[in-house]
Write a structure and sequence with these properties.
By secondary structure, the protein is an alpha+beta fold. The protein has two domains: about 5-80 and about 200-220, 3-Layer(aba) Sandwich (Glutaredoxin), CATH 3.40.30.10; about 85-190, Glutathione S-transferase Yfyf (Class Pi), Chain A, domain 2 (Up-down Bundle), CATH 1.20.1050.10. It is about 55% helix and about 5% strand. The protein is built from nine helices and four strands, in the order βαβαββααααααα. It has helices at about 15-25, 40-45, 70-80, 85-110, 115-145, 155-170, 180-190, 190-195, 210-220, and strands spanning about 5-10, 30-35, 55-60, 65. Strands 2-1-3-4 form a four-stranded mixed β-sheet, with helices on one face. β3 and β4 form a beta hairpin. Pfam families: GST_C_3, GST_N. Keywords: Transferase. One of its GO terms (biological process) is glutathione metabolic process. This is glutathione transferase.
Length: about 220
């Protein structure tokens, strides 16, 4: 064992991508194991590695962690990305939960029936521009600082840049009415660890395609 965190999931974004983002932003190298068959997934369950019979699975610091939120929270705490006190942590958690609601829509979009894709894309645009992005635009404008909480880089910033880029892939003009978020995106994308993660050949996964959707359905079929 190299001592690097070991991530077990499919070779695609899904619920693991936010974990990859957070580790990469913290400058942590990791190893990945990709599930390609239902048999591999069933073996993890049979071997007792999946507490709730679900992935992501992250092996870190001698633990076999499941549940995305718990994994992210542990990584954020370990690498000092979870605020300096309880009040900052509460703010970060609130922002992260809001972003997670938007990301859930992005996550499920590739699995939309063909006749629902346009409607679901409109829903993503509506929620992003009318519910979620205005919150962060206002926060950044009001306190005039570079980051969302305590003028210090945190888990919330990582989640937000991931969400911005994910929405922009589908709606390229989505930030047109959000100058603070445009500046935030530029600044965050140029942070050395994030800039490295955005380069070709990094562990960042491409947008889900039909092959990824088929693999998900195959691996997790009941």
């Amino acid at each position: 064992m190299s001592g690097k965190p070991r991530l077990t999931y499919l070779n695609g974004r899904g619920r693991m991508e936010s974990i990859r983002w957070l580790l990469a932003a913290a400058g942590v190298e990791f190893e990945e194991v990709f599930l390609q068959t239902k048999e591999q997934y069933d073996k993890l369950i049979k071997d007792g590695l999946l507490l709730f019979q679900q992935v992501p699975l992250v092996e870190i610091d001698g633990m076999k962690m499941v549940q995305t939120r718990a994994i992210l929270s542990y990584i954020a705490g370990k690498y000092n990305l979870h605020g300096k006190d309880l009040k900052e942590r509460a703010l970060i958690d609130m922002y992260v939960e809001g972003i997670a609601d938007l990301m859930q829509m992005i996550l499920m979009f590739p699995f939309s029936p063909p006749d629902a894709k346009e409607k679901n894309l409109d829903s993503i645009k509506d929620r992003a521009t009318n519910r979620y992005f205005p919150v962060f635009e206002k926060v950044l404008k009001q306190h005039g600082q570079d980051f969302l909480v305590g003028n210090k880089f945190s888990w919330a910033d990582v989640q937000l840049i991931e969400a911005i880029l994910a929405v922009e892939e589908k709606i390229p003009t989505v930030l047109s009415g959000f100058p603070q978020l445009q500046a935030f995106k530029t600044k965050m994308s140029n942070m050395p660890t994030i800039k490295k993660f955005l380069q070709p050949g990094s562990p960042r996964k491409p947008p889900p395609d039909d092959h990824y959707v088929e693999t998900v359905m195959k691996v997790f079929k009941r």
